Here is the input.
Amino acid sequence: MHKLFEILKSYDYTVVFVLLVATSLILMARTTQYQGSRLAVWANGVAGGWYRGINGIGGYFGLKAENDRLAAENAQLRAHLAESYINYTDSVFTVDDTVYRQRYTYTEARVIKNSWNGQNNLIMIGKGSAHGIEADMAVISPDGIVGVVVATTRNFATIMPVLHSDSRNSVKVKRTGISGSLVWDGLDYRYAQVLDVPTTHQFLEGDTIITSGLANDFPEGIPVGYVESTETLRGSGFFKIKIRLATDFNKLDHVYVIDNRFKKEQEQLTTNE
Here is the structure.
Protein backbone atom coordinates (compact mmCIF):
# COMPACT_ATOMS: atom_id res chain seq x y z
CA MET A 1 0.00 0.00 0.00
CA HIS A 2 2.87 2.34 0.85
CA LYS A 3 4.37 1.73 -2.62
CA LEU A 4 1.00 2.50 -4.22
CA PHE A 5 0.85 5.87 -2.45
CA GLU A 6 4.41 6.59 -3.53
CA ILE A 7 3.51 5.86 -7.19
CA LEU A 8 0.39 8.04 -7.02
CA LYS A 9 2.38 10.81 -5.37
CA SER A 10 4.99 10.76 -8.14
CA TYR A 11 2.23 11.17 -10.76
CA ASP A 12 0.02 13.51 -8.74
CA TYR A 13 -0.15 16.26 -11.37
CA THR A 14 -1.04 13.76 -14.12
CA VAL A 15 -3.77 12.15 -12.01
CA VAL A 16 -5.26 15.52 -11.12
CA PHE A 17 -5.22 16.56 -14.78
CA VAL A 18 -7.01 13.37 -15.92
CA LEU A 19 -9.63 13.76 -13.19
CA LEU A 20 -10.26 17.40 -14.12
CA VAL A 21 -10.63 16.51 -17.83
CA ALA A 22 -13.02 13.66 -17.01
CA THR A 23 -15.08 15.91 -14.74
CA SER A 24 -15.24 18.59 -17.42
CA LEU A 25 -16.42 16.13 -20.04
CA ILE A 26 -19.14 14.79 -17.75
CA LEU A 27 -20.39 18.29 -16.90
CA MET A 28 -20.31 19.30 -20.54
CA ALA A 29 -22.28 16.22 -21.62
CA ARG A 30 -24.95 16.85 -18.95
CA THR A 31 -25.39 20.58 -19.48
CA THR A 32 -25.02 20.97 -23.27
CA GLN A 33 -27.13 18.79 -25.57
CA TYR A 34 -24.93 19.32 -28.64
CA GLN A 35 -21.69 18.57 -26.83
CA GLY A 36 -23.30 15.58 -25.17
CA SER A 37 -24.31 14.16 -28.52
CA ARG A 38 -20.80 14.70 -29.92
CA LEU A 39 -19.27 12.91 -26.95
CA ALA A 40 -21.72 10.04 -27.38
CA VAL A 41 -20.74 9.71 -31.06
CA TRP A 42 -17.06 9.72 -30.11
CA ALA A 43 -17.61 7.08 -27.41
CA ASN A 44 -19.58 4.88 -29.81
CA GLY A 45 -16.82 5.20 -32.39
CA VAL A 46 -14.20 4.07 -29.90
CA ALA A 47 -16.35 1.14 -28.75
CA GLY A 48 -17.16 0.20 -32.35
CA GLY A 49 -13.48 0.13 -33.25
CA TRP A 50 -12.76 -2.06 -30.24
CA TYR A 51 -15.51 -4.56 -31.09
CA ARG A 52 -14.49 -4.63 -34.74
CA GLY A 53 -11.01 -5.61 -33.66
CA ILE A 54 -12.33 -8.33 -31.37
CA ASN A 55 -14.65 -9.67 -34.08
CA GLY A 56 -11.83 -9.55 -36.61
CA ILE A 57 -9.66 -11.73 -34.40
CA GLY A 58 -12.53 -14.13 -33.78
CA GLY A 59 -13.30 -14.22 -37.50
CA TYR A 60 -9.69 -15.11 -38.29
CA PHE A 61 -9.75 -18.09 -35.97
CA GLY A 62 -13.14 -19.06 -37.39
CA LEU A 63 -11.81 -19.23 -40.96
CA LYS A 64 -10.72 -22.86 -40.62
CA ALA A 65 -14.22 -24.02 -39.68
CA GLU A 66 -15.73 -21.91 -42.46
CA ASN A 67 -13.27 -23.32 -45.04
CA ASP A 68 -14.10 -26.86 -43.94
CA ARG A 69 -17.81 -26.14 -44.33
CA LEU A 70 -17.37 -24.62 -47.80
CA ALA A 71 -15.18 -27.50 -48.94
CA ALA A 72 -17.81 -30.04 -47.88
CA GLU A 73 -20.48 -28.01 -49.68
CA ASN A 74 -18.37 -27.88 -52.85
CA ALA A 75 -17.98 -31.66 -52.77
CA GLN A 76 -21.77 -32.02 -52.80
CA LEU A 77 -22.10 -29.53 -55.65
CA ARG A 78 -19.45 -31.33 -57.73
CA ALA A 79 -21.34 -34.57 -57.31
CA HIS A 80 -24.35 -32.97 -59.02
CA LEU A 81 -22.49 -31.70 -62.08
CA ALA A 82 -23.56 -33.20 -65.40
CA GLU A 83 -20.19 -34.92 -65.95
CA SER A 84 -20.70 -36.89 -62.74
CA TYR A 85 -23.58 -38.79 -64.31
CA ILE A 86 -24.00 -41.30 -67.12
CA ASN A 87 -26.92 -40.68 -69.47
CA TYR A 88 -29.04 -43.78 -70.17
CA THR A 89 -31.37 -43.33 -73.11
CA ASP A 90 -32.56 -46.96 -73.13
CA SER A 91 -35.83 -47.34 -71.20
CA VAL A 92 -34.56 -50.57 -69.64
CA PHE A 93 -32.58 -48.39 -67.18
CA THR A 94 -35.56 -46.33 -65.93
CA VAL A 95 -36.30 -48.47 -62.87
CA ASP A 96 -35.64 -45.51 -60.55
CA ASP A 97 -37.58 -43.06 -62.76
CA THR A 98 -34.51 -41.27 -64.07
CA VAL A 99 -32.46 -41.35 -67.25
CA TYR A 100 -29.28 -40.54 -65.34
CA ARG A 101 -27.12 -42.66 -63.08
CA GLN A 102 -24.49 -40.97 -60.94
CA ARG A 103 -21.00 -42.12 -61.89
CA TYR A 104 -18.76 -40.00 -59.66
CA THR A 105 -19.13 -39.02 -56.02
CA TYR A 106 -16.85 -36.65 -54.13
CA THR A 107 -15.53 -36.76 -50.57
CA GLU A 108 -13.93 -33.63 -49.12
CA ALA A 109 -10.74 -34.11 -47.09
CA ARG A 110 -8.18 -31.86 -45.43
CA VAL A 111 -4.47 -32.11 -46.23
CA ILE A 112 -2.50 -32.81 -43.04
CA LYS A 113 0.92 -33.52 -44.57
CA ASN A 114 2.34 -32.43 -47.90
CA SER A 115 5.63 -32.44 -49.81
CA TRP A 116 6.35 -30.84 -53.18
CA ASN A 117 10.10 -30.36 -53.55
CA GLY A 118 11.35 -33.96 -53.78
CA GLN A 119 11.45 -36.51 -56.58
CA ASN A 120 8.70 -38.73 -55.14
CA ASN A 121 6.36 -36.49 -53.20
CA LEU A 122 3.44 -37.76 -51.13
CA ILE A 123 0.36 -36.16 -49.58
CA MET A 124 -1.53 -37.34 -46.50
CA ILE A 125 -5.19 -36.50 -45.86
CA GLY A 126 -7.29 -36.79 -42.74
CA LYS A 127 -9.80 -39.33 -44.06
CA GLY A 128 -9.46 -43.03 -44.79
CA SER A 129 -11.33 -46.30 -45.28
CA ALA A 130 -13.84 -45.38 -42.56
CA HIS A 131 -14.92 -42.53 -44.82
CA GLY A 132 -15.13 -44.63 -47.99
CA ILE A 133 -11.64 -43.78 -49.27
CA GLU A 134 -9.92 -46.59 -51.20
CA ALA A 135 -6.69 -47.04 -53.13
CA ASP A 136 -6.69 -45.90 -56.78
CA MET A 137 -9.30 -43.21 -56.24
CA ALA A 138 -8.60 -39.95 -58.05
CA VAL A 139 -7.95 -36.76 -56.09
CA ILE A 140 -8.47 -33.16 -57.22
CA SER A 141 -8.27 -29.70 -55.64
CA PRO A 142 -10.68 -26.79 -56.13
CA ASP A 143 -8.33 -25.69 -58.94
CA GLY A 144 -7.45 -28.94 -60.72
CA ILE A 145 -5.80 -32.35 -60.69
CA VAL A 146 -3.84 -33.55 -57.62
CA GLY A 147 -3.12 -37.29 -57.87
CA VAL A 148 -4.28 -40.79 -56.93
CA VAL A 149 -4.79 -42.52 -53.56
CA VAL A 150 -2.12 -45.21 -53.06
CA ALA A 151 -2.73 -46.39 -49.48
CA THR A 152 -5.32 -46.05 -46.70
CA THR A 153 -5.79 -46.73 -43.02
CA ARG A 154 -9.04 -46.34 -41.15
CA ASN A 155 -8.70 -42.58 -40.70
CA PHE A 156 -5.96 -41.51 -43.13
CA ALA A 157 -4.94 -41.91 -46.75
CA THR A 158 -1.77 -41.32 -48.76
CA ILE A 159 -1.90 -39.71 -52.19
CA MET A 160 0.68 -39.97 -54.95
CA PRO A 161 0.43 -36.53 -56.57
CA VAL A 162 1.36 -35.68 -60.14
CA LEU A 163 4.61 -34.42 -58.55
CA HIS A 164 5.95 -37.99 -58.43
CA SER A 165 8.32 -39.80 -60.77
CA ASP A 166 5.89 -42.73 -61.12
CA SER A 167 2.84 -40.58 -61.84
CA ARG A 168 1.38 -40.77 -65.32
CA ASN A 169 -2.09 -39.54 -66.26
CA SER A 170 -4.08 -39.30 -69.49
CA VAL A 171 -4.78 -35.69 -70.49
CA LYS A 172 -5.85 -33.74 -73.56
CA VAL A 173 -5.91 -30.24 -75.01
CA LYS A 174 -9.29 -28.70 -74.34
CA ARG A 175 -9.30 -26.70 -77.59
CA THR A 176 -8.43 -29.54 -79.97
CA GLY A 177 -9.07 -32.78 -78.06
CA ILE A 178 -5.54 -34.08 -78.76
CA SER A 179 -4.48 -36.57 -76.06
CA GLY A 180 -1.16 -37.03 -74.30
CA SER A 181 0.45 -38.22 -71.06
CA LEU A 182 1.10 -36.02 -68.04
CA VAL A 183 4.48 -36.57 -66.33
CA TRP A 184 6.79 -34.65 -64.00
CA ASP A 185 10.53 -34.15 -64.34
CA GLY A 186 11.12 -33.51 -60.63
CA LEU A 187 12.46 -29.97 -61.08
CA ASP A 188 9.75 -27.44 -60.24
CA TYR A 189 6.45 -28.12 -58.45
CA ARG A 190 4.75 -25.40 -60.50
CA TYR A 191 5.31 -27.14 -63.86
CA ALA A 192 4.82 -30.54 -65.50
CA GLN A 193 5.18 -32.00 -68.99
CA VAL A 194 2.82 -33.53 -71.52
CA LEU A 195 4.37 -36.23 -73.71
CA ASP A 196 3.26 -38.58 -76.53
CA VAL A 197 1.74 -35.79 -78.63
CA PRO A 198 2.73 -35.96 -82.34
CA THR A 199 4.41 -32.90 -83.84
CA THR A 200 1.74 -32.85 -86.54
CA HIS A 201 -0.49 -30.96 -84.11
CA GLN A 202 -0.26 -27.29 -83.21
CA PHE A 203 -0.40 -25.71 -79.78
CA LEU A 204 -0.98 -22.17 -78.63
CA GLU A 205 0.59 -20.61 -75.57
CA GLY A 206 -2.03 -20.66 -72.84
CA ASP A 207 -3.92 -23.66 -74.24
CA THR A 208 -5.79 -25.41 -71.42
CA ILE A 209 -4.87 -29.02 -70.62
CA ILE A 210 -7.63 -31.11 -69.01
CA THR A 211 -8.13 -34.74 -67.99
CA SER A 212 -9.16 -36.88 -70.93
CA GLY A 213 -11.57 -39.21 -69.16
CA LEU A 214 -9.93 -42.17 -70.96
CA ALA A 215 -8.70 -43.72 -67.70
CA ASN A 216 -11.01 -45.13 -65.04
CA ASP A 217 -10.13 -42.61 -62.35
CA PHE A 218 -10.49 -38.92 -63.26
CA PRO A 219 -13.67 -37.54 -64.82
CA GLU A 220 -13.21 -35.80 -68.14
CA GLY A 221 -12.57 -32.07 -68.11
CA ILE A 222 -10.73 -31.55 -64.80
CA PRO A 223 -8.21 -28.68 -65.24
CA VAL A 224 -4.60 -29.87 -65.37
CA GLY A 225 -2.59 -26.86 -66.49
CA TYR A 226 -1.82 -24.32 -69.19
CA VAL A 227 0.70 -24.55 -72.03
CA GLU A 228 3.87 -22.53 -71.44
CA SER A 229 6.08 -23.78 -74.28
CA THR A 230 6.64 -26.70 -76.66
CA GLU A 231 9.80 -28.57 -77.61
CA THR A 232 10.31 -31.19 -80.29
CA LEU A 233 12.04 -34.32 -79.01
CA ARG A 234 14.78 -34.96 -81.57
CA GLY A 235 14.20 -37.99 -83.77
CA SER A 236 10.92 -38.98 -82.08
CA GLY A 237 8.26 -37.02 -83.94
CA PHE A 238 6.68 -36.05 -80.61
CA PHE A 239 6.42 -32.89 -78.56
CA LYS A 240 7.50 -32.27 -75.01
CA ILE A 241 5.04 -29.67 -73.77
CA LYS A 242 5.76 -27.63 -70.67
CA ILE A 243 2.63 -26.66 -68.74
CA ARG A 244 1.98 -24.60 -65.62
CA LEU A 245 -0.06 -26.76 -63.27
CA ALA A 246 -3.51 -25.51 -62.32
CA THR A 247 -3.06 -26.69 -58.71
CA ASP A 248 -0.61 -24.84 -56.48
CA PHE A 249 0.81 -27.72 -54.43
CA ASN A 250 2.61 -25.32 -52.11
CA LYS A 251 -0.75 -24.01 -50.88
CA LEU A 252 -2.79 -27.22 -50.97
CA ASP A 253 -5.31 -27.27 -48.12
CA HIS A 254 -8.48 -29.13 -49.10
CA VAL A 255 -8.91 -31.88 -51.70
CA TYR A 256 -11.76 -33.94 -53.13
CA VAL A 257 -11.45 -37.72 -53.41
CA ILE A 258 -13.43 -39.08 -56.36
CA ASP A 259 -15.19 -42.42 -56.33
CA ASN A 260 -15.95 -43.80 -59.80
CA ARG A 261 -18.90 -46.03 -59.02
CA PHE A 262 -18.51 -47.83 -62.35
CA LYS A 263 -14.77 -48.44 -62.09
CA LYS A 264 -14.92 -52.11 -61.13
CA GLU A 265 -17.31 -52.79 -63.99
CA GLN A 266 -14.94 -51.04 -66.41
CA GLU A 267 -11.93 -52.95 -65.08
CA GLN A 268 -13.72 -56.25 -65.62
CA LEU A 269 -13.89 -55.49 -69.33
CA THR A 270 -10.23 -54.44 -69.37
CA THR A 271 -9.05 -57.67 -67.77
CA ASN A 272 -11.01 -59.68 -70.32
CA GLU A 273 -9.32 -58.00 -73.29
